[in-house]
Specification:
Number of domains: 2
Number of strands: 5
Shape: elongated
CATH topology of the largest domain: Rossmann fold
CATH superfamily of the largest domain: Response regulator
Oligomer: single chain
Organism: Thalassovita aquimarina
Structural class: alpha/beta
Radius of gyration: 25 Å
Distance between the termini: 56 Å
Order of helices and strands: EHEEEHEHHHH
CATH architecture of the largest domain: 3-Layer(aba) Sandwich
Helix content: 40-55%
Strand content: 5-15%
Protein name: ANTAR domain-containing protein
InterPro entries: ANTAR, CheY-like_superfamily
Number of helices: 6
Largest sheet: 5 strands, parallel
Length: 190
């Protein structure tokens, strides 16, 4: 798979103007417009496509989001590989790491960072969907009971019909239950 970062905006959060400038130039070779910051992000920075952050000088509360909840991929620059600094980076949920002296390998870090960030976003999406569907369990039970009553069938057959309805409507079973109950309510009001 080929990754293109052209047209993206990156932020480089590092105390050294020299390092920021070097990364901005390196990112420009990939078509990425970069801006340097230190010591923190400013309002509106959450809309950037990428954040490159200095792990050595990073602090808790430096980001306007919790650990692992960055709205963009975060690549950590490692100067000294101390256990405490690495643990801080892990706690922040950084997506990729790059030794400060190896910026020639920035492309690899970007690819890994974007892939890891996308993976985390998919996990969060699935968890949110599972949570949403869990809130509809009562409607699922109510729909099965309504089908049993309306059609004069048993539980297994009612659930089978509801599944078939969900497949036809191309929705989750819980959403099909909500649709069915809405239809039952409309018919009862007519």
């Amino acid at each position: 798979m080929t990754y293109s970062f052209a047209g993206m905006k990156a932020l480089v959060l590092h105390p050294s103007a020299e390092v920021r400038d070097g990364l901005e130039q390196r990112l420009a070779t990939f078509g990425v417009r970069a801006e340097g910051r230190w010591p923190e992000l400013v309002p509106g920075d959450e809309s950037a496509d990428l954040l490159v952050v200095d792990i050595d000088r990073g602090e808790n509360g430096q980001f306007p989001w919790g650990g692992g909840a960055a709205p963009m991929p975060v690549v950590g620059l490692i100067g000294s590989e101390t256990p405490g600094r690495l643990q801080w980076a892990i706690d922040q949920g950084l997506d990729a790491f790059l030794p400060q002296g190896a910026t020639a390998k920035l492309y690899s870090a970007l690819v890994l960072g974007f892939a890891r960030h996308a993976e985390r976003a998919e996990i969060r999406r699935r968890e949110a969907e599972a949570g949403r569907r869990a809130t509809l369990r009562l409607e699922l039970v109510q729909a099965v009971i309504a089908l049993m009553r309306d059609e004069g069938i048993g539980e297994a057959q009612a659930l089978k019909q509801l599944r078939a309805f969900a497949m036809v409507e191309r929705v989750a079973l819980e959403d099909a239950a909500r649709l069915y109950l809405s239809d039952v309510t409309k018919r009862g009001q007519a």
